């Protein structure tokens, strides 16, 4: 989800409002997109177990994903992480291994690399594909909460500035093919967290950071709102009778973050400056390739139903393999197929 998504709540103009209402009607008429158990959704456990929707894997009918001529990440992508707050070694390891799995050929199918394939089919105006290669470049710890335990969209940029201008081991500056992930620990609240978003991406402003760098923020929701942002490994209290699924890496907060991190990285690659691949007519409210498939993890997914997932012998639920680990990651919109897809699709 782009940062712009949330600006709609601050004094939208009438035409904009109408456009938004129309867009929402379209999206939810498709009834297979952007589902999370936000408190205002009216669902119950029966819906979730049997699937609330007959429309499978997104509806192409109303989705007009278009290319707006801006750059995409066609060169080897480098990921730089800022660990904000208190992180356990084991938590960092799960996230690093997910990122390292994106370019790995070593995992068995269905694999994280197979999931990334959908992204590599997107191109720029010269016809260059998004890179298959994505690597962890550098990491920076901000373990003493340099900007406090409540961050705003603007103070996030100051955190990034501190990391790229630090006196010792600053993060490398790579505006062309670098992406910057700010990951916040479970005791940090970020503006709009839980109420509207579990993560978002945008780019930094030269006036604040000195450079235009595509970045994303994703928070560990374990303490604040796991039922929303770590769903289906945690469930909201207001859906009676629903049991959480067992998470593949034994940490519901982190396993929930993985899908959001995947969501944001896929959108950063296809829409790094929010002027490349998105649906909708308003760049302030872009609907991007992962927004279109939020809540869909397998064949048949849509509405409040996750789709068909894989069950491990240990009882954990996942939909793809990485190096040494399994993950549950939402599907992505394929502009070639005109529907949401993933490596565990049954028709592949
Ligand atoms: C839950 O949803 C099912 C199927 O849509 C419906 O039959 C049932 O009445 C609902 N239960 C509650 C408590 O709302
Ligand atoms: C991108 O990565 C590949 C393999 O890791 C390497 O062979 C290639 O030289 C890199 N390209 C650039 C432009 O750095
Ligand atoms: C680039 O993307 C196109 C679809 O847009 C696809 O047909 C082609 O196979 C891709 N090339 C590579 C090298 O992945």
TrEMBL record:
<protein>
    <recommendedName>
        <fullName>Protein EXORDIUM-like 3</fullName>
    </recommendedName>
</protein>
<dbReference type="InterPro" id="IPR006766">
    <property type="entry name" value="EXORDIUM-like"/>
</dbReference>
<keyword id="KW-0052">Apoplast</keyword>
<dbReference type="GO" id="GO:0048046">
    <property type="term" value="C:apoplast"/>
</dbReference>
<comment type="similarity">
    <text>Belongs to the EXORDIUM family.</text>
</comment>
<feature type="signal peptide">
    <location>
        <begin position="1"/>
        <end position="34"/>
    </location>
</feature>
<keyword id="KW-0964">Secreted</keyword>
<dbReference type="Pfam" id="PF04674">
    <property type="entry name" value="Phi_1"/>
</dbReference>
<keyword id="KW-0732">Signal</keyword>
């Amino acid at each position: 989800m782009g940062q712009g998504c949330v600006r709609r709540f601050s004094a939208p103009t009438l035409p904009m409002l109408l456009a938004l209402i129309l867009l929402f009607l379209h999206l939810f008429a498709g009834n297979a997109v952007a589902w999370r158990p936000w408190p205002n959704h009216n669902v119950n456990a029966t819906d979730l177990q049997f699937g609330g929707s007959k429309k499978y894997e997104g509806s192409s009918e109303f989705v007009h994903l278009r290319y707006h001529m801006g750059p995409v990440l066609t060169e080897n992508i480098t990921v730089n992480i800022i660990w904000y707050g208190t992180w356990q070694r084991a938590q960092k390891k799960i996230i690093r291994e997910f990122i390292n799995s994106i370019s790995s050929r070593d995992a068995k199918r269905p694999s994280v690399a197979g999931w990334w394939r959908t992204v590599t089919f997107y191109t720029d105006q010269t016809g260059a594909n998004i890179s298959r290669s994505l690597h962890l470049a550098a990491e920076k710890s901000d373990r003493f909460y340099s900007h406090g335990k409540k961050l705003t969209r603007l103070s996030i940029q100051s955190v990034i500035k501190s990391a790229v201008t630090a006196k010792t081991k600053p993060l490398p500056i790579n505006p062309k093919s670098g992406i910057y992930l700010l990951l916040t620990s479970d005791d940090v609240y970020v503006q709009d967290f839980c109420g509207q978003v579990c993560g978002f991406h945008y780019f930094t402003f030269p006036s604040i950071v000195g450079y235009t760098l595509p970045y994303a923020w994703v928070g560990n929701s374990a303490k604040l709102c796991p039922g929303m942002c770590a769903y289906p490994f945690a469930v909201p209290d207001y859906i009676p009778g629903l049991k959480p699924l067992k998470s593949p890496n034994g940490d519901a907060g982190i396993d929930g973050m993985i899908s959001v991190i995947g969501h944001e990285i896929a959108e950063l690659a296809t829409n790094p400056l929010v002027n490349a691949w998105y649906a909708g007519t308003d760049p302030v409210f872009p609907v991007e390739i992962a927004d279109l498939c939020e809540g869909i993890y397998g064949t048949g997914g849509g509405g409040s139903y996750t789709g068909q997932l894989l069950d491990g012998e240990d009882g954990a639920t996942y939909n793809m393999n990485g190096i040494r680990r399994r993950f549950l990651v939402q599907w992505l919109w394929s502009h070639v197929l005109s529907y949401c897809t993933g490596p565990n699709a049954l028709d592949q």
